[in-house]
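hey so i finally got around to running the thing on that chain from the lab meeting. sorry it took forever, my laptop kept dying and i had to restart like 3 times. anyway pasting the input first so we r on the same page abt which one it is
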Amino acid sequence: MRSHLLEGKVRHRRSRPFVYGLEHDVYYFALDLDELDEVPRRIRSVSRNRPNVLGLRDDDHLEPPATDLRIAVHRHLREAGVEPAGWRITLVTNLRVLGYVFNPASFYLCRDASGELRMVIVEVHNTHGERHTYTLRRQSDGPTLIASMDKDFYVSPFIEMTGRYTVRVRDEPARLRIAIDEVQAGVPLLHTSLVLDRLRLTDRNVARMLIRHPLVTHRTTALIHWHAFRLWRRGARFHRHREVVR
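ok and heres what got predicted. didnt touch it at all, straight out
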């Protein structure tokens, strides 16, 4: 299978109004959209659209929620003006763990028939149950896909809605690197990075991830609230959801 696991670290570094950083161990599934039914046949702890230790639910993704994720992503790309026939699309995401999932961001790596990383769809979720997609096109040649977009989705109560992101994706044979920089009024505010090593998708490796990173999706939600509390205690300005989302 082309589908595999990714394990590594997520890092955030906020530079204003004070320096605040975090680093946590994480793992993800990298699922080839052509193998969404094959993965559950190979991996006993994974199911698609039914209960298991780990579960992929199509309707956890995209907006409106997908009923068939591969078809929905292909439709999304066609609406963006590209024909994905022959493309290989890999979804980097967390699956449901014991029925629960929260993915701050999932990434659809879209390679054309020649294998070039042409586009990346970034699917962002917030803790208010909302989701949004940014569709990024390569802006220059080279091994790293670089693209920028204006911020138009509420994520953190400690960051204003005005801002611009620059995303860098380097998809190497042994490692995936994703970096997201947010600037406001041309001044750097937040740097986020994922550095992930590739692992074969086997029952044994999945069991290792479940032991090394227990309840990873529950932990993600808990850590979001823990770091939010620490930012609030340090005096970061709080922007209420209802005040910035109209």
